[in-house]
Design brief:
heterodimer, A: 420 residues, alpha/beta, D-Maltodextrin-Binding Protein, domain 2, 14 strands, globular, B: 302 residues, mainly alpha, 0% strand
């Protein structure tokens, strides 16, 4: 017990300690161009999506002799720490790995990701993928990865509740007016039933930017140097969310961590917005739910906030044979990525999302419908921690303890001090 | 002479495994942590330039994000310590006395029942309470509403968020303190109570004049370990309130973990961790001196 004061400290120190040890990176493994190329591939798919990716890798390995991919799944919670150590040359690194779009600017700034401009257009065709997907891997005009999927915010709704309220269960709302209107009809405060329970924490990280983008706003301006959290578009977005609770009365107050999800699963909140990864959980419940693109809750334009999975290559991979082998693998994934769609995600390769098989699925085509206008997190380093003050402010406003304008201005100041 | 040497050697062998572990996982990382805290240590860069005390200076310069994170985290952590430690000690002792006064047959059952939560991981404890305390669909509020009372925003408003975190923590860890107190209570000699009975002392008088002084060393131990454990609070607020409402339950360890693993700033994170340990060590030493001083006084009076 007495050891405890040092625990926090040792954990931090120990991890950095590991960073400094083992300095042998895999650079020296020169690959013979004659024999079989072995590629090591890292992915954070420790959930139900892992077996899907494994299926693709296995069928690739069985399909030919020249390239063998050795996939390693690193649990999501420690993925980026492991990636940090390997990409900075402090530990053995993979030949190709999965990276979320919002992480790419941070790594690209350190010059440790391969600029794939020479590969794309040569061995990989840019036209084989949805154009939006390339936005997610672009930093300052250079491409740093090959996209796998885009996962935008999705709209889920309870069909039984729609029917009970006299609404058409096949016609979910498409704009703000319909959304508020339906939410009011779906609300029955006496029975504890709500139109749309507004989350005060996660997944606001997807919902709030969606509405800001739909209002035509931006969260960071001046090429990543100015936090723009208190713009009129952002204030309007937050005031709208807040009005759902305090004016329209279609959401309960004091929704806690995951509270809106609990209500949706209990059939007490008719509408729900979350990422496409929720699909399996909703399918396992006995909810009669529908899924659709997010309605246009902002006032200006179609838009939806999204993140993405991409393949990136460490800068240290120089061997031509290896790079060619990587292209072969990625092209195979693009052509045979249907298995990835089974995980609920929507691959961005046209061969998959334009196929009949894909378009017969329940959720995945709804995800792909949003590709055209999906927008990613601002192109800045460390967007996650940088946006923390923003989400604390949103939390305060949605809990009714602060005004939108004031809270967002304060968050903007905090974030600006982190940017500098 | 020879056998004395031998026995010293044998003793040394017995301590050796612990010593190796202690050195490897505590002393080395600790020294390494101090070393890191004097460098600009970005996890993404293989080069870590020496920056002297800059990481510390930034924590003490108002206006920097490090300063904000550290001060806010420290204030919140201290609040948690102040709210939780007295309850952990008092309820732990009360439970120990309650269980001890039970008939022998059912004593073992209750001892185990109260101790079990301590063996469960914090993530399970947190999810359990998260569901029970849910403002809009939780068990507790449904019960309150059933009694005609109004629902309480357990995790989204102050002071309820702190109350909930303290309740969850007490329920989780109270078994440990209880077991320690039970052992201490069993050590108190029966003769003293018998003598007191003959003198016609009341239960309260027996508690104040016999029980408390007899278990004082254990009491000090429990106070210090509870304080240290409460200082290290992380899982409960991280999982139950996410630091909310706003940042009002964002504890120090959450900030340190963010610096280290989200911002990849190991230097700044280590500096914060060093300061945190220094504060904890001073508080523990302070508590020890204070309580030891009292004991001396007590002895003089006796």
């Amino acid at each position: 017990m007495l050891k405890k004061p040092f625990m926090a400290l040792s954990a931090v120190a120990l991890l950095s300690g590991l960073a400094a040890c083992s300095n042998d990176s895999g650079e020296n493994e020169s690959a013979d161009s004659g024999g079989t190329q072995t590629l090591s591939f890292w992915a954070p798919f420790s959930g139900p999506d892992g077996p899907q990716m494994e299926e693709i890798v296995n069928s690739f390995n069985d399909s030919q002799e020249d390239v063998q991919v050795d996939m390693q799944i690193v649990p999501q919670s420690e993925y980026y720490t492991t990636v940090d150590l390997s990409l900075s040359g402090q530990q053995e690194s993979p030949d190709v790995l999965i990276m979320h779009g919002d992480q790419i600017p941070t790594y690209a700034a350190q010059n440790i990701l391969k600029n794939v401009d020479t590969i794309v257009g040569d061995t990989i065709s840019q036209d084989d993928y949805h154009p939006t997907a390339w936005d997610g891997v672009e930093v300052d005009g250079n491409l740093y990865g090959v996209p796998l999927d885009i996962h935008p915010l999705m709209f889920y709704y309870n069909k039984d509740m729609f029917e009970a309220a006299g609404l058409d269960p096949e016609a979910p709302p498409t704009n703000r007016e319909e959304f508020v209107d339906m939410a009011k009809q779906l609300t029955n405060e006496e029975a504890g039933e709500w139109g749309y329970a507004v989350p005060t924490l996660w997944p606001q990280q997807f919902i709030f930017p969606t509405i800001v983008y739909q209002n035509g706003g931006e969260l960071v301006t001046d090429e990543g140097s100015t936090a723009n959290f208190a713009s009129p578009e952002a204030v309007e977005a937050l005031e709208f969310l807040s009005s759902l609770i305090y004016e329209e009365g279609v959401s309960p107050e004091n929704v806690q961590q995951d509270g809106e999800l609990t209500l949706f699963l209990q059939g007490k909140s008719a509408m729900h917005m979350n990422g496409p990864w929720m699909l399996s959980q909703f399918e396992d419940s006995d909810l009669n739910f529908g899924v659709a693109p997010v309605p246009q809750l902002g006032t200006e334009t179609e838009a939806v906030f999204a993140n993405s999975h991409n393949f990136v290559i460490p800068e240290t991979v120089q061997d031509e044979g290896k790079l060619e082998a990587i292209s072969t693998f990625l092209n195979y994934v693009a052509d045979n990525g249907q298995a990835w769609a089974e995980s609920g995600q929507a691959p961005v390769s046209k061969a998959v999302y334009e196929s009949d098989e894909f378009n017969e699925m329940k959720q995945q085509p709804q995800v792909a419908k949003q590709f055209d206008y999906a927008q990613f997190s601002p192109n800045v380093e460390n967007w996650g921690p940088l946006s923390d003050p923003l989400y604390s402010a949103i939390n305060e406003v949605l809990l009714g303890s602060m005004e939108a304008q004031e809270a967002l201005e304060q968050a903007q100041q905090d974030a600006q001090s982190r940017l500098e | 002479m020879k056998s004395k040497k031998m026995s010293a050697f044998t003793s040394f062998l017995f301590v050796l495994p612990y010593l190796i572990m202690f050195t490897l996982f505590l002393v080395v990382p600790l020294i390494y942590g101090v070393y890191i805290s004097f460098h600009d240590w970005n996890l993404l860069s293989p080069i870590h330039p020496f920056v002297g005390g800059e990481n510390y200076a930034r924590i003490f310069t108002s206006g920097t994000s490090e300063n904000r994170i550290f001060l806010n985290g420290l204030t919140n952590t201290l609040q948690f310590v102040v709210y939780s430690v007295p309850l952990l000690v008092i309820i732990g002792l009360a439970l120990a006395m309650l269980v001890n006064s039970l008939p022998m047959k059912i004593r073992g059952f209750f001892r185990t029942a109260y101790f079990i939560p301590y063996a469960v991981s914090v993530s399970i404890i947190a999810v359990l309470w998260l569901w029970m305390l849910d403002t809009n669909s939780g068990l507790v509020n449904q019960a309150l509403e059933g009694l005609g009372l109004s629902a309480i925003p357990w995790l989204t408003k102050l002071p309820y968020a702190w109350i909930s975190l303290v309740i969850a923590t007490v329920w989780w860890t109270i078994g440990f303190n209880m077991i320690i107190f039970i052992n201490a209570l069993n050590e108190v000699s029966e003769e003293m109570y018998e003598a007191a009975n003959i003198d016609g002392a009341s239960s309260w008088q027996k508690f104040i004049h016999i029980t408390l002084p007899s278990i004082r060393p254990i009491m000090i131990f429990v106070i210090i370990t509870s304080t240290i454990a409460s200082f290290n609070v992380y899982g409960q607020p991280y999982l139950m309130t996410r630091g909310g409402p706003g940042e009002s339950t964002e504890v120090l360890l959450m900030g340190i973990v963010q610096q280290a693993f989200e911002l990849r700033q190991m230097g700044a994170a280590s500096a914060m961790a060093m300061l945190m340990s220094l504060i904890m060590i001073s508080i523990s030493v302070g508590q020890f001196l204070l309580t030891r001083g009292k004991k001396r006084k007590g002895e003089e009076h006796a």
